[in-house]
Amino acid sequence: MKSKAIxxxxxxxxxxxxxxxxxxxxxxxxxxxxxxxxxxxxLFYAPQYVALSQGYFKEAGLDVELQTTAGGDKTMTALLxxxxxxxxxxxxxxxxxxxxxxxxAVINFAQVTQTDGTFLVSRSGKxxxxxxxxxxxxxxxxxxGMPQMAGEFVLKKKxxxxxxxxxxxxxxxxxxxxxxxxxxxxxxxxxxxxxxSMMEQEGKGKVVASFGVESGKLPYTAYMSKKSYxxxxxxxxxxxxxxLQKAQKWVQEHSAEDxxxxxxxxxxxxxxxxxxxxxxxxKQQGSYxxxxxxxxxxxxxxxxxxxAAGELKQRTEHKALVDNSFAEQADK
Length: 332
What we know:
Layout: H1 3-16, E1 26-28, E2 31-38, H2 46-53, H3 56-59, E3 62-68, H4 72-80, E4 86-89, H5 92-99, E5 106-113, E6 119-122, E7 137-139, H6 146-157, E8 167-169, H7 177-182, E9 188-191, H8 195-201, E10 206-210, H9 211-215, E11 221-226, H10 227-232, H11 234-253, H12 256-263, H13 272-284, H14 296-308, H15 318-321, H16 325-331
Parallel strand pairs: 2-3, 2-4, 7-8, 7-9
Antiparallel strand pairs: 1-2, 4-11, 5-11, 6-9, 6-10
Helix pairs in contact: 1-4, 1-5, 2-11, 11-16, 12-13
C-alpha cells in the first residue's frame, strides 16, 4: 500500500473517530487499563515483553492489554478510531497523519528501538559485495514503510538505485515475505529477526549485512498516542513510560539468554536458540534504546531517510510530534 493511500486511510479513520470515546483510561479500582496495539509480534520489541513479564506495568498500576494489529496502516487506524490507546509502530506513520492535517495529532512519547531492525539475507551466502545486488531479484518491504525506506536509503548509499538496478519485488504481504523467499523467490531478501536466523538455521540463506548498522540511529519504533489521550491521561502515560524505562534498563543489564527466558512465552513456536541469536544480534548493534527519549538528531535522520524515499511532503519538526517530557522524567 503506497504512503498516500495509507495517509488517506488514516485520515478517514481519524474523522470517523470524532464520535468515539475521548480517551480517558478505563479504571478498575486503582488499576488503569491501557490497550496497546503493536504493529507486529517481534523480538525487536523485547523491552515491551520484558516490561510485561517482569511485572513493571503491573507494578505501576497498569492493566496492559496487548494486541498485534498487523501493519502500520492497521495499527494507526486502530489508534485513531479509539480501538487502542497506545500504538507501538514506526513514527513515520505519525508524520503521514500530521501531513494530512488531522485535528488530533499523534504524538510520539517513548522510543523503543533506535535502529532499523532488518537484515540483508543472501541465498548464495558468499561474502557481500554490494555490487552483486545489481540485476538481482530483491524481495523488499512495503512502499512507504520504514523497513523499505531504510533499505532504499542504504542501497543508494552503496551506489545502487533500487528501482533501476534491481528486480525489486514489493507486492508480497509482510507476513508472507519469508515464505516466498524460502520457496525460492528472490536472490536477496530484507528480513527482521527471528526470520533471518530461521533462514540461516534452515540453510536457505545467510545474513550478510545489517540495514540497522548501515542506516544509522533513528527513532525506528516508538510508543505514541493521540494528543487528546495524552492530555487527558498524563499520569497514566508517565507510569507507562516509567515501566518501559525499567524494562530498557533490565535489557541493557542482562544477557541475550536471560532476555530470551523473560520473553520466550510471547514466542511459543520459536526455538530458544533462535530467540537468543536474534536478541543477541539486536543487542550487539545497539537496536534497543537505552532510554525512552526520542533524540532530535535521530529524528532528523528519520526525516532524511523519508526524504530520500520521496515520502515526505515537507520536514516535520521534532517538537511538532515528539513529547519527551515523560521520557525525561522516567530517565531521572
